[in-house]
């Protein structure tokens, strides 16, 4: 079968000679419908976020059940499913609570399929347990694939601050890409706060307005923080969701976050922050959430089934993977690219 393989040392190739796996026990073989292309792949390929192993890329996966191992119950050939991405041990307390993204054994395990283990940029993908599948009913797997990350990650980040996102507050979204463009829609649907979006191009800021941002600010403007404080007034933002995570965006977030606010850094842009007593308003929490839980993925599917969120998708073939990664590097993908075998 065909697959997009990462060989380490920045080397990615499309190969044609992988054997189609056969599921055993609780394993499930999926025929891939779509595999989303996440910016984290670039942190893996270009910056060595995952090293020392060869594997098939693609950690945002959806498809149809092709074949099940002898212990699998409740799934049959043709069922449309999403693959929950952060694969935990399945047994510890966070995993039992469906928070496999915070599995006690996180430091001992690979992150999951497409992040150290074989992922879904291939004709077929072997999922190690039926526990990691979530049915999508009549959603199309091609369109639904990015729900597993581009939607789940912002959903989980927003949910932990939901009690602060009241209608008289301001929330700032930094980075209107794959994750950020879904964050804007989730915020519009599940909270009443006024949304301010930041990005670096006029096109992205216009896109943000279409997705629910009341105000937009170009974060490369020298006075970006002042522009935002002019909008919010003295209270500043209650929640800042940073989908870039560079030093410059973290610095911006720290200037615009208000008292008792949440500065939530989702992006893995390699940023640094120097904490200094007295500089950050009191009560602020800085967090670095990772992905989301299995049950939150079910909630995200609920939003998609009700058409309350949609992913802006650009479809490509597996053979175009390298070209797509280049476009993503250059900031030329609007919404999410999905590879369709
Ligand atoms: P993307 O490339 O689709 O989007 C990034 C967006 O940020 C683009 O619109 C770009 O124009 C914008 N941007 C770049 N620099 C900016 C700046 N200085 N100010 C404002 N906007 C800026 O990326 P994505 O797939 O949405 O991923 C975003 C980040 O989140 C990546 O670092 C990725 O690795 C990370 N991520 C983290 C998790 C997690 O669980 N913590 C999960 C998925 C992705
Ligand atoms: Zn991702
Ligand atoms: Zn666990």
SSE diagram, text form:
Elements: E1 3-6, E2 12-15, E3 28-37, H1 39-47, E4 55-56, E5 60-68, E6 80-83, H2 93-96, E7 112-113, E8 116-117, E9 124-127, E10 133-135, H3 141-144, H4 152-159, E11 170-174, H5 178-190, E12 194-199, H6 202-210, E13 215-218, H7 224-232, E14 237-242, H8 247-256, E15 257-265, E16 285-287, H9 294-305, E17 313-316, H10 321-329, E18 336-339
Parallel strand pairs: 7-8, 11-12, 11-14, 12-13, 14-15, 15-16, 17-18
Antiparallel strand pairs: 1-2, 1-4, 3-5, 3-9, 3-18, 5-6, 6-10
Family: Belongs to the zinc-containing alcohol dehydrogenase family.
Keywords: Metal-binding, Oxidoreductase, Zinc
Enzyme class: oxidoreductase
Assign the CATH topology of the largest domain: Quinone Oxidoreductase, Chain A, domain 1
Rg over C-alpha atoms, rounded to the nearest angstrom:
20 Å
Secondary-structure element order, as H and E?
EEEHEEEHEEEEHHEHEHEHEHEEHEHE
This entry's quaternary arrangement is: single chain
Number of domains: 2
Largest sheet: 7 strands, mixed
Number of strands: 18
Domain Enoyl reductase (ER): 8-339
Enzyme class: oxidoreductase
Family: Belongs to the zinc-containing alcohol dehydrogenase family.
Organism: Flavobacterium araucananum
